[in-house]
Structure formats: C-alpha cells, structure tokens
Design brief:
The chain is an alpha/beta fold. The protein has two domains: 1-16 and 348-392, no CATH class; 22-345, Divalent-metal-dependent TIM barrel enzymes (TIM Barrel). Helices cover 41% and strands 13% of the residues. The strands form three sheets. It has an eight-stranded parallel beta sheet with strand order 3-2-1-12-9-8-6-4, covered by helices on one side. It has a two-stranded antiparallel sheet with strand order 5-7. Helix 3 links the parallel strand 1 (30-33) and strand 2. Helix 2 (18-27) crosses helix 10 (326-345) and helix 2 (18-27) crosses helix 13. The protein is globular. The relative contact order is 0.15.
Amino acid sequence: MNRYDSAKEIYTAWGLNTDAAIETALALPISLHCWQGDDVRGFERNEALGGGLAATGNFPGRATNAQQLMEDLDAALARTPGRHKINLHAIYAVTDSPAARDQLAPEHFRAWLDYAKARGLGVDVNPTLFSHPLAADGLTLSHPDAGIRRFWVGHCKAMRRIGAWFAKELGQVCVNNIWIPDGFKDTPADRMGPRARLKNSLDEILSESYENLIDTVESKLFGIGLESCTVGSHEFYLNYAAKAGCVCLLDNGHYHPTELVSDKISSMLLFSEKLALHITRGVRWDSDHVPVYDDELRNICTEIVRCGAWDRTLVALDYFDANIHRVAAWVIGLRNVRKALLNALLLPHDMLKELQDQRDFTRLLALQEELKLLPLGDVWDELCARAGVQAGIGWMDGLAVRNT
C-alpha cells in the first residue's frame, strides 16, 4: 500500500472522501496578482510605489517589462496545482506609449488577453488609484477638487469597460476591485465630507451595468502617511456594498491585528450573495507578507467550506514581498492557499457541528486537536501528482534569478 492509499484509508474511517476533496480543491479558481512580480511598479512609469504603499526588499530579478512578467507568471503557474486567474492593475497596460489612466481602453490590454486565452486563464482587473501625480496628496475619489475626482471616476469607468471586455472575450466572470488610498495622516476636521464625495463618485462609476462583471470595494484600516483616517473604511464599504448591490471585499491584512477575517465570513455570506477575499498575511501593522500555512489561512478556507460557499466566494491573492525570489513568493502563497482548501475539505464538519449543537465542547476540542495530525501531506502530494506539478520542495528546481 502506498502512502496515499494509506492516508485515504485513514480519512475514510472519518467518513471523508479524499478523491472528491482533491477534485474540489483543484476546481476553485484562485486569482494570482501580477504585482508581486515587479514590486507594484507597472509599465506606466516603472517608478516606486506611492499612496501609502511600500514594497520592501531588493532581491534581484524583478520583472521590468511585460514579457518578463509573463514569463515569471508562467514559471509560477507551472509549479502550482489547480485553476487560476490573473489579476491585473491598470498600470500593467501594455502600450507603445503611456496612455492617460482615464483614457485606457481594451486595446491597451490586448497582450494580456492573448496571454490568458493561450493558457485558459480568466482575468480580473483593478483601477490603479495610487502612484500618480493626481494622487500625490492622498485623496482621489474623495478629493475636494471636482476635476481630480472626475479624472479618477473616468479611470474607474475605463477599467470597468476593460473588465467587461475581458469577461466577454474569455467567457469567464471578471472581478473589478476598487481600492483607494484616500485618508489623513492626522485627525481630520471633517470625515463626512470626504465619505459623501466617495459615495457620489462610486455611484457614478457603477451607474452602468455590464454582463459578467462583478464589482467589489475594498477597505483598509490605515496606510503609511494615512494613519488617522481612511475614507474607505470597512463600515463605509460594508454599507455601500449592501446599498449599491456590489460586493464587499475583505483583505485579511487590512484590519486590526486582533481582528480576524475568518470570523467575518459567515456573517457576510448571510447577507450577501457573493464574498470577495484578498488573501495575504499581516505581520503587526504590515499587510502584504506571503501567506503561510497558519491558523488564520486554514480558518478562512475552513469557513468557505463550512458555509458551502464554493460558488459564492471570489478568492484572490494580494501581497508583494521584494525580499525573496518573486516567483517563489507567488508559488508559496498559491500552494498554501490550495493546501488550506484541501485541509478544509478533509474535515468532518457535520460531526463537529453536531458536537457543538449538543454542547459537548470537551469532545469537540479533543477531536479538533486529533484532526490536526491526519496525513494531509500524503493527500496533498497526490493532488500535486494528479495536477502534474512537483510535490515537496522539488518545485524550486530550476528556479533561476534573472539578471536585470
């Protein structure tokens, strides 16, 4: 008996089907963020970040153009099992000469459409409301200057049109996620005004309907230089999404360090048809570390499975670590999320729920601890084999460092 057959027998004794779990774990599409590959510089100006964001580290081999970034994405996808999408920010438009952000059009993303089509990938999009002269003072869609707001509204509208084009051309739903850096370093004298302007801007941006385009709005607790107030807070977007009919996106690095996104998922799903997630790893007040196979990642994926929300949850990654090999950062994060999903599928949820309902918390705790030692690794290796990717640390073989 090989290791997988032995593990399968153990899980069967718990009433769990490892073959079905592997099939389901491979089926959920995870959206891979392109901006890990080049430290969120993009191709517009190829400059360092702004708007309360920072990528730290100077590991060699950063992608400096579209061809290199696509090559690096290929290297990452070849090492990760399961279905994937590519998540693009507006600054990754591939053009002969830079286009103003409010003038971006589908032709500026033709190279990405060809890339995705050739590989059977879906595409998600994001307007880029940072690292730009009109975002230099920390305000965009909530800016008191109507002309600046108009520029950013135009940009967000352009990206929605591009997202709808991707959805039509690829035959897959496209997620358009709006995140803004707007906020204040010190205590503001007026919070209502900026939030009212943000609401009005979003109303205008979302005024047109598109088929197979899902709009999401993403909050953040604070940004560098924006420590005292962010206009797009969790409460603002939670209420706005409920009123406007878009989707609230939760990034698990965008909350207080003691606040857990895994605890929010069931509540969100009770009141919203869809839930969007950006998976990262917060370390103290920093939000963009590579996800590791830790308690919170496992708990997030467990909640998705427990809630039966496979077809309602939009999963994407969002981090940028320039301190390690950038392709490896993608692979480590992607594999850990897929691994956590597999783990969640191999838990006896009905049994555990029954113990909770019976108030038998002693046995519940004992079983939860016992389950941690089930041979998940052997099932993961089988999943990798069926997907045609290397199990174990062998995926690092041939991972070169580019000379740039």
